[in-house]
Structures
1.
Amino acid sequence: MRKLRKKTLNFIEQRKKEILNCNHLFLLLDNGEEICERNSSDCYIEENIVECVHCGLTNKFKKLEFVLSNDLPNEFEVNYVLGIPYDKMTIETEMFNKIFSKSYTRGDKSFNNNDLNLISKEKLYICNPKLLYDLALIINPDANNEEIFEIMKKINSLESYSEKIRLNTVEQSSNLLERYYKYKEKVKKL
């Protein structure tokens, strides 16, 4: 819901520039489903749920936005929830749709997931992919994508529930990094 709060035009322009200038590297959060109705012409493939580890471009809000858009007023009205103005779509969803518009085929029934530059084909649902990616680079700056992904998985397993929600910056993550280094020391001793 916080992502749907109205933003200033300056913020929107800066965010769109950041997304457009990014060399996207996506973390697979969940696989898109292949859905078939009555016959093969009714089948469609949803896009994978992903988030860029560099800029945070994501499509993870699309299903929620679809549900909420049925209850929100038309685009010329401002929707208020508890006195706070909301948009019908996040900047991330708007930009994802724009950047990957050619990946939708068959009248938007299918999405070519091969167009997504993934760090790994293995899915890993985490709250803050950018933070874990940055921490993995601190741990091993010379790592390839596969090694970075493995480090991210381990950091995620060491994170407490409250850290997953609360941590946003590398500076806030010093205790988590310490636990990772202690874990690595134990592994070396074995």
Note: The mean pLDDT is 86.
2.
Amino acid sequence: MGLSAIFLPQRPPRQFVFAGDRQAGTFLLRNGRIASRSIFAGPALAEGAGWEEALAALRAEETGVVFSASPFIFNFFEFDKLPWQRQALDELVAWRLQKIFPEDIAAYDHRFFRLDRKRVLSILVRRSLLERAEAAFAGKRTPLTYIGCSTMEILARARRAKPAPDFFVERDGSGCTLVFQQHRLPVYIRKFRNVSAADTVSEIGKTVAFVRSQYGIDPRRYWLHDHLGDASAAAVEAALSTPGGEAAEGGEYSRLPLAADAAPHIPGCA
């Protein structure tokens, strides 16, 4: 199977595996809430290691796996006008992708989502990654019915939120992803590696300045989701709220709260 259609409503399974950067987690949902979770430090599921430990905690029922942003490639394409016929749209997006992508596209699962009359969001992930996940689940005799990307799952939730964040920060070990939206549609995504909260905040400041100049928006309200926990997130929040700090140029930021014990990267979780 390929990457699931993130922006299309569907019934997600009741248990998930999260494959992060040097950590993994299993989540069991009940009535849209997390009934239980287990976090495993160390395994790099995206690199093919640690599947046995992660899958050992699962029940023998339909399951989803959500990978962090690390293995995904995001691109925004803008055209003069997008055709409504699906085949013509597929061909147009494939043509644009081939012009900029240096590798063999056949080695990747490619999905794209129409954002408006001119723009699409393109997502690439290696087929070998999906095949390794399928093989691990098949060996466990557990049906794999959903494959997702944590960043896109959070984005889907951010688009529906009231109030909606101007951008969100997703931290996962040494990786960080920033997603900016305008009128509840994504306009810019950036991934980078960092080793500290200070590095993260510095890069947030630079990226906000870029988005402000390129897209004419003023990102202030944000979500912050750190897969390493509240203590790690608190360091970033504190640095963002420091007057005169590296990211504070041009005004202050306001962190919008997520629900207690939130897991916005897990589909079907309230």
Note: The two ends are 26 Å apart (CA to CA).
3.
Amino acid sequence: MNIADCSRIKEAPEAGWMLVYTRFEVIFEPYDSRELAQERLKGYEILEVHLFDRNTEYRCLESRSPRFDGRAETVADFPDDENVYRESVLLEKPWEDRRLIILNHISYGSDSKDDVMGHIDNYRLVMQETV
């Protein structure tokens, strides 16, 4: 997949962090603009890309499998509120002074939070700047 082929890339945060899975490596670093991120990723065979800031995450992935064949894109921008389960992941060098936060959005079987059958219907990544 080429990042320029992603139809919703303009909805990605203008600046933030990128987590990109390519055929041969993982790229995890900050970016200062969407254009610079796209330039940085030229020439890579991308499997999955996450561009995120504090409020929004853009995801695009391409797959060829029995379960799904094609490209999937989404923009996750739900608030960090009582319907979110937070996970904190400690990072390795050179980012060991930060944590990656995964915000898992929980939906319930009905409009009532008393319905205990919840499920995670979306997630987004957030970088915690210091531990």
Note: The beta strands are 16-22, 26-31, 46-52, 57-64, 69-76, 84-90, 99-108, 118-128.
